[in-house]
Amino acid sequence: MSMPAAEKVIAVDDDAKNGRGDELDDLPVDDGTKHQISVDPWYQVGFVLTTGVNSAYVLGYSGSVMVPLGWVGGTVGLLLAAAVSMYANALLGRLHLLGGKRHIRYRDLAGHIYGRKMYGLTWALQYVNLFMINTGFIILAGQALKALYLLIKDDGAMKLPYCIAVSGFVCALFAFGIPYLSALRIWLGFSTVFSLIFIVAACVLSLRDGVRSPPRDYSIPGDGPERVFTTIGASASLVFAYNTGMLPEIQATIRPPVVKNIEKALWFQFTIGVVPIYAVVFIGYWAYGNETSSYLLNSVNGPVWVKALANLSAFLQTVIALHIFASPMYEYLDTRFGSSEGGPFAFHNVMFRVGVRGGYLTVNTLVAAMLPFLGDFMSLTGALSTFPLTFVLANHMYLVANRHRLSSLQKSWHWLNVIGFTVLAITAAVAALRLIAKDSKTYHIFADV
Predict the structure, then answer these.
(1) Which residues cross the membrane (predicted)?
(2) Distances from the Cα of 256 to the Cαs of 5, 98, 106, 295, 322, in angstroms?
């Protein structure tokens, strides 16, 4: 991994080497990048994190989390998942300055701690994670677009695969015009407005339906092995709800002091940022019980214009949120193959984005149209990538980086996290694959679900 010659290397004390120093933020990055870094205030990064967790995915958690876990399991699970996610992300944020360098990519940090092989494995895990999240976003956008169309003209002409194709095209157009993550800026404001529109609409219409409806059934569906597998799959969705799998890449955009500022952004995400999630999840489940749809806006009743506005907002917010999770792939492609000449809006750089980003999103869109099983994607993503990246690796990297500073009790705690979350990841992956296999038998590819 190379270091730009122009970067100044300075002396680093023990605290900075162990990811605890905040005074020495004028450090070289682990490798060069053609995207902007160190330019965003902490609150902009907080909005990036909050935009990621308050995306249209929240419209699915009443069905994918609360229905298989019930009131007690779902509520305790959401609170516990928030606590452990905050803790794991804070550990990861403190490693950003490890060894006298700013590690602006997850793979750079893993490579610094473990070596070249782990660099490659972490890269693979992260991009599988982000690819599946992006695929899920395109499914979500397609569902919102289909719901919007059915409100206007219920003739069955617009199948879900067609809506997914349109969604992928719109996401690509947005990607061509936004060169890097820091350039979102004003779009984060639009994203917040769109999120509030569909969350408030879903909550108000669900409350209205709940008050008018007879008593609901909150019993957990299924029994025997089926219930066990759905419970495990829902647990994977819990951790998926709060985590991006790309905290180092997001932290790279923040202004110094980078550790203190990312902690501020994380506190913003896990306090103010989770309130909308809890509102829509609990109200939606209360209103419809175990009949809650995997896309809450399909369950609600109310004025057509309100539902149409909510679905349109969900579609538009998804286009913006997808760009956040696709940005590590864009950064790699731009840095490795793009040109630095002429700025990001030079004709040849725009054409490069059209070709490369368009190709990447075409693959995402094809997979989304072929296998539009959103709940299964959330479970598999949580199992294969979110558990290992956010919990297993974060705890183990912190353990390795601080092994001479930690007490025996602290080491035991981190090892407990590493082993426990590894076991959970394996069992959740098995459960998710079983669900996908089951749904694949029920629905053919390119299904209009």
Answers:
(1) 42-62, 69-88, 127-148, 160-180, 186-207, 265-288, 308-333, 354-374, 380-401, 413-437
(2) 21, 15, 19, 40, 26
Say how far apart CA 429 and CA 125 lie, in whole Å.
13
Domains plus CATH for the chain? 14-442 (1.20.1740.10)
- How far is Cα 245 from Cα 42, in angstroms, rounded to an integer? 19
Helix then strand then coil, in percent of the chain rounded to 5, is 75, 0, 25
Question: Which residue has tokens 């974060």?
Answer: 394
pLDDT tens sequence across 374-400? 566 666 777 777 788 888 999 999 999
* Residue 177 pLDDT > 50: yes
The token duo for 417 is 């996290």
Q: How far apart are CA 300 and CA 345, in angstroms?
A: 43
Do residues 312 and 144 lie in contact, with contact meaning Cβ atoms separated by under 8 Å? yes
Alpha carbon 27 to its chain centroid, in Å, reads 28
Contact 156, 316 (CB under 8 A): no
DSSP per-residue codes, 47-63: HHHHHHHTSGGGGGHII
For helices 67-94 and 224-242, angle between their N-to-C axes, nearest 10 degrees: 40
Mean pLDDT of the chain, nearest integer: 86
Tell me the pLDDT tens digit for each residue of 133-175: 899 899 999 999 999 999 988 787 788 999 999 999 999 999 9
First vs last C-alpha separation in the chain: 46
Among 317, 251, 322, CA closest to 89: 251
Query: What is the residue-wise DSSP string for 356-411?
Result: HHHHHHHHHHHHHHH---HHHHHHHHIIIIIIIIIIIIHHHHHHHHTTTTS-HHHH
Those residues whose C-beta lies under 8 Å from the C-beta of residue 28, and which sit 6 or more positions away, are 3, 4, 7, 8, 9, 100, 101, 102
Cα–Cα distance list, 439 to 168, 374, 434, 445 (Å): 23, 11, 9, 10
Rounded to two decimals, the pTM is 0.85
Give the pLDDT band (50/70/90) at residue 288.
very high
Residue 400 tokens, joined: 């390795």
* Residue of 281, 207, 204 lying closest to 242 (CA atoms): 281
H or E stretch covering 140: helix 116-152
Alpha helices, DSSP H, located in 153-246 = 160-177, 186-212, 224-242
Residue 14 vs residues 18, 20, 21, 227, 312: alpha-carbon distances, Å: 6, 9, 8, 50, 52
- pLDDT reading at 445 higher than 50: yes
